[in-house]
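Subject: Sanity check before I submit

Could someone independently write out the structure tokens for this chain? I want to compare against mine line by line before I put it in a report. The sequence has 334 residues.
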Amino acid sequence: MQKLGKQTLKLEHPVTILETASIVGPKEANGPLAKYFDQCLEDEFWGESTWEKAESKIIKETVNIVIGKSKLPQDKLEYCFAGDLLNQCISSSFGLRELNIPFYGIFGACSTFVEGMGLGAVFIESGAAENLLCCTSSHFCSAEKQFRFPLELGNQRPPSSQWTVTGSGSAILSKSGTGPYITHITTGKIVDMGIKDANNMGAAMAPAALDTLISHFKDTGRKPSYYDAIITGDLGYVGKEILIEMAETKGYQIKSNYNDCGVMIFDKATQDTHSGGSGCACIGTVFSGYWYQQLKERKYKKILLMATGALTNSTTAQQGESIPGIAHAVSIEV
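---
Independent answer below. Compare away.
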């Protein structure tokens, strides 16, 4: 690996994204990307007694699907990097406890999917593994219960709020294969601009996305036009517009080739999701479903995939703390 600047790694031997899989909930199944997901659920419980158990089942079955699609024997997967939004990452650890693969539970809030891809790519490039698994999950009902208010209260959601995606995305990374390839990894820094509104995560995370975006361009010497698409994870409509405006003030024009998974996954006009989607599964499902297919079909050949996360919990919110943000990026090319 070659270190570029302070935050970016260039992989001497680009790592193949061998296969992906995704499962989504009923609201996501009614959105514009439904045909790209491997499975769409009819209800949020999926036969389980609690939302938390349902989320664990979702990540478990998504992993089973991606292993089946890859045609790799399970014993050829040497590590698993997984995480979610619930306390102590219980969705991942309970859902994957029977997987029998060396396991790293990771947490980057909604940036976890790309964090796992970056760490996994470093493992493969270093020779520590030849094949490994990266996966994340989230669930609207379990996330609302933990971070905001019980659904039974029927609280009014402001226009800036986002809808946590119910689902799971999974990717298998490999030393061998014909791409798409992870070529660069830009690790983000914690950025806190003092935003305290838990119903405006887009505003809290956009500064971190800007910081990572600028660092990536400076470290690599690339410009926004190098990429066919720049994709963030879950800034939503509010955060997306903030990032576009902030990038422009720094001399970077990204509006023409930039989109956000939280904007893409729901139909704003018909689904009442306000500022769009969020959650670990937001970028996980949209990349594993839509974007991976676009890359495989060579409709896009170079994308910058950047996942954003709000590093907060219910305790810090109750104590009046601000919301720190983080953003991790990987360059994916064919």
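---
OP: Matches mine. For the report I'm noting this point. DSSP finds eleven helices and 14 strands in the chain.
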